[in-house]
Amino acid sequence: xxxxxxxxxxxxxxxxxxxxxxxxxxxxxxxxxxxxxxxxxxxxxxxxxxxxxxxxxxxxxxxxxxxxxxxxxxxxxxxxxxxxxxxxxxxxxxxxxxxxxxxxxxxxxxxxxxxxxxxxxxxxxxxxxxxxxxxxxxxxxxxxxxxxxxxxxxxxxxxxxxxxxxxxxxxxxxxxxxxxxxxxxxxxxxxxxxxxxxxxxxxxxxxxxxxxxxxxxxxxxxxxxxxxxxxxxxxxxxxxxxxxxxxxxxxxxxxxxxxxxxxxxxxxxxxxxxxxxxxxxxxxxxxxxxxxxxxxxxxxxxxxxxxxxxxxxxxxxxxxxxxxxxxxxxxxxxxxxxxxxxxxxxxxxxxxxxxxxxxx
Length: 360
Ligand code: T4K
Fold this sequence. Notes:
The chain is α/β, with parallel strands linked by helices. Helices cover 36% and strands 17% of the residues.
């Protein structure tokens, strides 16, 4: 019996990929804003319904770039219920993350933001966790009231739309991850979406050491460039990402219709949202972590590798213990009960049935 992992990468057609590699070999332009990268950025804009995108070498550097380009400092209000990267970038930039609780979808709760604002607060960093959109209108209201920037970590939200509009258009900037474990992938990769040509130029410069021309460095930057091979891989994957999302949706629908077990809860689709089905979290034995942990182990013994995304909370990591947080009741409740089930393009309902049978 084959093992089932929480995810599996979206791979382009190998023959087509070999053709791209031939072309790259022929041109000898292997990185530094080559033709595949430029074409990839154009096609991403079309696909995502956005105007300005800068592609990066992973999904973490665009977060650092956003903090630097927007001039964010002091304290940033953020969520503890996320992958550690969304907070480590703050600490790395000398900014103090201030953690507040999440809403029932696992996203930063706008009602909890105001209490955490101090004169050092300069921004809100929200994460559209599992691709569920944050309450962006309420976050914008709060940000406007206190003159704060808004950065969205949209690592999980590739292709997500709210009311027919890309979720990436919310906030001052949004960042994406194209890691192999994501709905859309370039193996390693990421991007930042911003709202003006001038901003894009800053992000493009940041990812290339801040170099303006051969003799001018106009800002302090670093190396965040994506190479031609991965840009071509991304171009090929763009052709199949709709199919990938629809295959994921089929599995999610199977799970939703067949996991009817007392004590297990899961999210439903949100009205007016086009979901990307990036993860399928279930919440098991609320307030009783042993049940979740036992299920995690039992699934493993049957070759089913679910993951506790996101446990522990970021605030519970020793490295983050010195940062302030308010009451985190909801975040803790989700974190103590979550288990993400296998979900990937190419997964079949037979695979999902095996998972469901094992859970039952
Ligand atoms: N913000 C948020 C909210 C994020 O979730 C992330 C990343 C970031 C920012 C940062 O973006 P990047 O800089 O990473 O682009 C994974 C990913 O490494 C990470 O990208 C992701 N979030 C996080 C949620 O998950 P791990 O350590 O759990 O992945 P790993 O290697 O255990 O893989 C999980 C399963 O996927 C494996 O059991 C098997 C399968 N797999 C994985 C890889 C890498 C494959 O089949 N093939 C593969 O090549 O972190």
